[in-house]
Amino acid sequence: MRIDLHAHSTASDGTDTPAELVRNAAAAGLDVVALTDHDTVGGYAEAIAAVPAGLTLVTGAELSCRLDGVGMHMLAYLFDPEEPELARERELVRDDRTPRAQTMVGKLQALGVDVTWEQVARIAGAGSVGRPHIATALVELGVVPTVSDAFTPDWLADGGRAYAEKHELDPFDAIRLVKAAGGVTVFAHPLAVKRGECVPEAAIAELAAAGLDGIEVDHMDHDADTRARLRGLAAELGLLTTGSSDYHGSRKTCRLGEYTTDPEIYGEITRRATGAFPVPGAGGRER
To answer: Which among 12, 242, 277, 284 could bridge 261 via Cys, Cβ 3.0 to 4.6 Å?
Structure first.
């Protein structure tokens, strides 16, 4: 089985619609794909309706968190999307995204960049607006060559010249909320140092003690040494290890299935989850 547990659609900052995402996942030879848009479940219905035969969809989200001033992302899988407390926190994060993005646009304008809110809103479309949409605007304007090049201290990285904070979950609260909604938590790309400051390994140990299920090890932002280091840490802490593409369509260079998760790990994730079921394209429900 080929299993990719981290992909985004136009419901947040990907360029594939949810339906296109599941069709492209099947075309890429995947058996399982997870829809993990940022702080939203808005793509679920379209994706579920479009899952082709031979592909299984795992519903999820990538939750925006911050620990001691350091931004981090928590992948949540197979939680009940209607559980009220977690839904309320997702709404708080989403509601803060537009004013935050507008603030960053204003900072860029003050730096002499000819970007407008109308341009960013056009790029985001119906999706939950975020930094990748602003980064795409910078690419369109020729300010940076790629979206990744916008995530530097000069521009949009945490603490960068055009950075603005938003409402984010405490990761310990995120773990508690996802667990209460029957879901499973995996710390996304925990040592992606080129994105900015990362939480220390001691904090990962504390998150594990609080119920964190796993860490994303095989990811495009982790080199071979980092992956080996994370595998050792996961073994020490009793955490699951996943692999994922972090696919964003044409917005990033990663391809669906570029990194994958071991089927045994996937099986353990589905066994632990009680909030929702994977959706097989052949119809019915898988458990």
So the answer is: 242
pLDDT at 285: 40
DSSP-assigned beta bridge partners for residue 110: none
Taking each helix axis as running N to C, give the angle between helix 84-110 and helix 131-140, from 0 to 180 degrees, rounded to the nearest 10: 30
Tens-place pLDDT, residues 114-141:
999 999 999 999 888 999 999 999 999 9
Q: Is 90 exceeded by the pLDDT of residue 253?
A: no
Supply 43's token pair: 């793509």
Q: Which residues pair with 186 in a beta bridge?
A: 75, 214
pLDDT in tens, 179-208: 999 999 999 999 998 777 899 999 999 999
In order, the DSSP letters of the chain are --EEEEE--TTTT-SS-HHHHHHHHHHTT-SEEEE--BT--TTHHHHHHHPPTT-EEEEEEEEEEEETTEEEEEEEES--TT-HHHHHHHHHHHHHHHHHHHHHHHHHHHTT----HHHHHHHHTTS---HHHHHHHHHHTTSSSSSGGGSSTTTTSTT-TT------B-HHHHHHHHHHTT-EEEE-STT-GGGS----HHHHHHHHHTT--EEEEE-TTS-HHHHHHHHHHHHHHT-EEEE---B-GGGSS--TTSS---HHHHHHHHHH--S---EETTSS---
Q: What's the rounded Cα separation, in Å, for the pair 8 and 124? A: 13
Q: Cβ(123)–Cβ(115) under 8 Å?
A: no
The residue among 168, 240, 239, 179 whose CA lies nearest residue 206 is 239
Residues forming beta bridges with residue 247, ordered by sequence position: 7
- Quote the crossing angle between the two packed helices 84-110 and 117-124, to the nearest 10°: 140
Comparing CA positions, the residue from 28, 33, 35 lying closest to residue 12 is 35
